[in-house]
Specification:
This is ABC transporter. The chain is an alpha/beta fold. The protein is built from seven helices and nine strands, in the order βββαββαααβαβαββα. The protein folds into two domains: 132 residues, P-loop containing nucleotide triphosphate hydrolases (Rossmann fold), CATH 3.40.50; 73 residues, Helicase, Ruva Protein, domain 3. 35% of the residues lie in helices and 29% in strands. The structure holds adenosine-5'-triphosphate.
Amino acid sequence: MMTDMPTTALELRDVTLEYRMRRSFFRHSFRRALDGVSFDVEKGETVGIIGGNGSGKSTLLRVLGGIYRPNSGHIACWCENIMMLSLGLGFDPELSGRDNALIGGVLLGGRRREVKQRVDQMIAFAELEEQSKDPVKTYSSGMKARLGFSVALTMEADLLLIDEVLGVGDQAFQQKAKAAMLSRINSEQTVVFVSHSLAMVTQLCNRVVWLERGRVRQQGSAVDIVEAYKIEQQNKT
Ligand SMILES: Nc1ncnc2c1ncn2[C@@H]1O[C@H](COP(=O)(O)OP(=O)(O)OP(=O)(O)O)[C@@H](O)[C@H]1O
């Protein structure tokens, strides 16, 4: 008998994370950034994470990306490779843009030969053909951001984690980055998208999870949750 392929990509149950902060040589304190967070992401869905400053959005994405381990709760993931679209993380300043693109692609789970074939595409998307052999330390922050975005976008992943990256680079690059992301999101891609742009969230997401002080305040269809969030914002002012 054939068993059905799982349709769930991610399952979070009661996920809690505390940052440990050093107060003095002997003393530490803890800040709870996620507090009992539970939700599911189905395959092919784009789930938006919204909430005010400090509500835990980036922390949640880092937990999903395996950068932080939760203190309690569990995360089940049925995706083989997960990619975090973030900006210029971990570039080696002494190496060229081309070498960093190659290393970045491999770090994102690509096979070396496969990544090598795609490096030209990454450099071209980032519009860095002329500077591709220069060390990254000579790049402006916008150039580094463009390279980081291009590397992540060119690679393939079952689950894409996106943390507010659309403010990258100049206006023309932002348009291009947005179009590239949209085409990716409209396909079968599973995405978790953190953003302060409610318009983008409504445009891109099927479902939304609203975080407040590390807890899920509400979750449901993108239109309903964004509406409820906007009403609350208006009532606050
Ligand atoms: N490295 C850290 N050490 C200690 N506390 C942290 C750290 N990173 C974040 N925090 C705290 O954890 C909480 C959640 O932060 P997080 O960055 O996840 O929020 P966010 O919703 O992404 O915020 P923003 O919208 O401002 O980017 C905040 O109270 C923040 O001050």
